[in-house]
User: Fold this.
Amino acid sequence: MNQVPIHIKFSGRLVFVGFGSIGQGVLPLILRHIGLNKEQITIVTSDARGEAEAKEYGINFIIQPLNQDNYRQVLQPLLGKGDFLLNLSVDVSSLALMRLCAEFGVLYLDTCIEPWKGGYSDPALTPSQRSNYALREAALALRDELGNSPTAVITHGANPGLVSYLVKQALLNIAADTGLSINLPVTREQWAALAQQLGVKVIHIAERDTQVANVPKRVDEFVNTWSIDGFVGEGFQPAELGWGTHEKSLPPEGSRHEFGCGSAIYMMRPGAGTRVRTWTPDSGHFHGFLITHGEAISIADYLSVRQGDNVLYRPTVHYAYHPCDDAVMSVHELAGRNWHQQSRQRLLMNEIIDGTDELGVLLAGHKKGAYWYGSHLSCAKARELAPYNNATSIQVCVSVLAGMVWAIENPQRGIVEPDEMDFQRGLQICSPYLGEVVGAYTDWTPLKDRGRLFPEALDTSDPWQFSNVLV
Assistant:
């Protein structure tokens, strides 16, 4: 890169919890863009993955799995007021770590709200109780309890995280392109009013990963371009989506939660077993997995227009994810094993020989049809931009970097979601690592090419009903 800015200096200690693909990918970016030295950093992780990289950079590396019984004992000597805990782990409770950070005056960031091990698939919990909706409600309750504590940024990777910034910029782009003269929204209410005024009914987080490796997937092996444990864990959770006010009826197996803000619904099936129709500029229309993600719930909630207890407007929001083809085969094999995970895992990195990751937001139902805005990034370009990355991981890693910078700049904001943060600052930090940032309009709807082979009973009065999107 021609110029490498130091976005902010940090004098405290930085503790990684977890050092899988995202931890390994973000470490070079932190050292490049945050003013700190290697002596300030400690990695605490459950296994030896990434140990060679830590040794290369001279970072203190501790192999110690964390659990409910030992996490305080392990982390307390490593943390104090003004330090930063970067939680990139699986099977370690985000809420427990946030409480610990609040107690000791420590900044915090994670990429999703994690439960303790087994929380995603515990048969003692109802599907509603093990949903991302429930995890978010617990985090918001903790925010109310802790108040104005040190900043804890939750769910801040690429998605959730970066995509909340893309949604805001996409809304501004649509407003400009439709001739709507507006002032830059500042408050939650102003952003929701803009989305309502534009007539946005649906927001897909639409992602297509075409990266391919020179070693094909083997039987009894799960292959992916980012955290396999993370993908499988969220794939086991119920399919979830933010539920819009334009929807006429719940989908088959759809249910409402009996607690919380009411912005989302869930389905009595795993997200990795549920597919939806969507569109990206390069791939066109395709079927993606409806994997539960925090942004589907938080964006729908953030863009809700309320009058008292009544919701006057809310878009339907969900993730629509087509991972790399080896990962698709891995999911199909996983489903065929009645959701018992394969015995082997392989994270694709150096063996990737071609492909891109298109990650963006598709805003639809407005005057110009549908608008996709996001990142089109090749693996080759990602490797040029930063070591230990592919096209998928770097989109997450640079968003982690952006969230860390914002937290250091705003150290006393309590628990914060990406929707509430400065989207312009975030995009400023992320954009150099996103490849080509694309905005594209399309006349595609989920009714396109339907009934070509077999007749379908479709409600064509509104193509953007979820019943038309669901495969």
About this structure: The chain has two domains: 8-153, 162-393+434-469. Residues 391-409 form the longest helix (19 residues). The chain has 14 helices and 25 strands.
